[in-house]
Amino acid sequence: MSAMSNSDNPVEIIITDDWQGACFDALARQGVSRPLLVTSRGTASRLGLSGIFPNAPVMGDIQPHPTCEQMQAAITRTRRQKFDSLVAIGGGSVLDTGKAIRMASQAECHELEQLFGWDGGITSNVPMVCIPTTHGTGSEVTKWATIWDRKDGIKRSLSNDQLYPSAAILDASLTLSLPLDLSLISSLDALSHSFEALWNKNANDAATGFALEAIMLILQNVPRLKQNPKEASVRRDLLRAASLAGLAISLTQTATAHAISYPLTLKFGIPHGLAAALPLLPLIKLNRSLLSEHLNFLVKNLNLSSETELDKQITETPKPILKSRLAEFGVSRDELPEIARLSCTAQRMTNSATPLSRADVLSVLQAIY
Ligand SMILES: [Fe+2]
């Protein structure tokens, strides 16, 4: 077992081959013993969680890309359950739902709508252990929970300093059964988080260091993942990369690529990680002067011959497993201006260090069409 250095981020990051032991140790360090278990049906059955946490109340049917209605239902269902902590085991949607339940419990407010922008104070501390089974969102180290408001067609966030998990447990064995397509989508999300931290108006040395290390780990390991998805050392590096990228955006937030991704996910169902990674290459071009030192660093440390080769590696990341053009997802060329308009109204767009016009965003969409 080892810890990961995490700058000023308050999450205790534990890298281990024994997630169960690390979880119970983390709960004991927090002085709690009755966690609410938040997970998905598949994870609960695959890991035999009812045997590992025999007396724990369970919120066990979390769906991907949770909506406001699903988050509210999870908060309502767990309101009367007795727990002193949370253990969330699963992908980003599970971890984010756990955070929403935790926020409601800590604030003693069980109306999701009131929790957005909550300034009513926190009544109690409910420690939370996050155990990711994917290597993408980095939610295990951030203070946000993403919620998909399908009624209004926007992505929303719960955000509060009290939402940083108490501990993140990274055990590569939990990611070995993740199918290759979802594995790539996860790593593409982490790759996008990393670049978002670089072209961000909130960029700083710590975030840049995390982001560059994450990019190198992802680009080095994705080809190996495609060859052998069951290789634990590859998964360990990709899990570490996702948390590093999470640490980076916990300092900067996300930016343009995520702003562009939200309408692509909400309107066309493009999985989040893929939607957030598709715009990367044209955005690298638009931000090239800002990125020149970082791109040189990556070319040198990845032993590449040129930036063109780096571009090629990024382009190749989803292939041949995932679709990588908007036209393949049923997007019509006529819809690009509206997607550009929606992208420019998304919260994260203003984090771009390079001011981008709606015409710039349209050019990005045309480049990936
Ligand atoms: Fe993301």
Structure description:
This protein starts with a strand and ends with a helix. It is of the alpha/beta class and 369 residues long. The protein folds into two domains: 2-174, Rossmann fold, CATH 3.40.50; 178-367, Up-down Bundle (Dehydroquinate synthase-like, alpha domain), CATH 1.20.1090.10. The model has no long low-confidence stretch (mean pLDDT 95). Helix content is 50%, strand content 11%. It contains 16 helices and nine strands. α4 (68-78) packs across α5, α7 packs antiparallel against α8 (205-227) and α7 (180-198) runs parallel beside α9. The protein has helices spanning 19-29, 41-47, 49-52, 68-78, 92-107, 112-115, 180-198, 205-227, 232-252, 256-268, 272-277, 280-286, 288-301, 307-316, 336-345, 358-367; strands at 2-3, 12-15, 35-38, 58-59, 85-90, 128-132, 144-149, 154-159, 167-170. A seven-stranded mixed sheet has the order 1-2-9-6-5-3-4, with helices on both faces. The radius of gyration is 20 Å and the shape is globular. Bound molecules: fe (ii) ion. Residues 137, 189, 192-193, 258, 272, 276 line the site of fe (ii) ion.
